[in-house]
Amino acid sequence: MYTLHINKIFTMKLINIIFLFLFSFALKSQVLVPILQGAIYVAGNDVNIKVKSSQTISHPISTPFNFNITVSVSSNGQSIANAPIPNSVSCSIPGATTVNSLPVELIDNRFTYAFTFTGITSAAINWQANVEQQLLFIDFPANPIMTNQFPRLEDQTNDGGGNLQQAYFYTEFTGFDYTNYSSMFYPGGGGTLGSDSNGDQYVQ
User: Fold this and answer.
1) Which residues lie closer than 8 Å to 135 by C-beta, 6 or more apart?
2) Which of 36, 45, 48, 204 can bridge 41 by disulfide, Cβ–Cβ 3.0-4.6 Å?
3) What is the dihedral of CA 70, 74, 78, 84, to 10 degrees?
4) Kindly report the CA angle at 165 between 119 and 37, in degrees rounded to 5?
């Protein structure tokens, strides 16, 4: 009986170890699998940034998040002093009350706008696989520079993120980096995928 009792304890401990190993493996797989991409939609002077995941992303209320979104427009030969400044920028993630609009940079002859936003979700996140999610809305002014523009959603990793080192496409919830680095963007709304002179990815 004593031996049988020890065997039961050993068996239960072994089952717990296996369960913890599988749980840890599943969690690491969730972190390491790159699944989130971005797209850009343009209507007049308004720019909408949307994202789509190849897997469902679910997080409870009060989940920390951290995003970098970078958009650019052609400078049309103008100096940085003439760069159009957005009238407003808003994020659709519940709890993102502030979007940090960094100073405009001139990268590869394009006015480049980096937006960063962090916070704690005020509602649960449940992004279903392959369903677009509204992320960021940017209202540009009626500026002549914006005429016949093809705004880009882009990443400037090869350029070091610009002078401020923030011009990236980066998506994170509670420390999990969901960014699909090998294929960051998709051609939503008839967009075109490409890469700039530094080899950085974009969609426009």
Assistant:
1) 38, 49, 50, 51, 67, 69, 91, 92, 93
2) 48
3) -50
4) 60
Instruction: For residues 85 and 63, give the distance between their C-alpha atoms in angstroms, rounded to a whole number.
Output: 31
**C-alpha 61 chain-centroid distance:** 19
Q: What is the chain's Cα-based Rg? A: 22
Per-residue exposure over 116-136, b if at least 16 CB sit within 10 Å of its own CB, e if not: bbebebeeebebeeeebbebb
How would you class 103 by CB atoms within 10 Å of its CB: exposed for 0-12, middle for 13-18, buried for 19 or more? middle
* Residue 34: CB atoms within 10 Å: 15
Measured between alpha carbons, how far is 202 from 109 in angstroms, rounded to an integer? 15
pLDDT in tens, 122-158: 999 999 999 999 999 999 998 878 888 899 999 999 9
Exposed, middle or buried by CB within 10 Å (0-12, 13-18, 19+), for 54?
A: middle
In DSSP terms, 53 is beta-bridged to: 36
Per-residue pLDDT reduced to its tens digit, 51-102: 999 999 999 999 999 999 999 999 999 999 999 999 999 999 999 877 888 9
Contact 36, 179 (CB under 8 A): yes
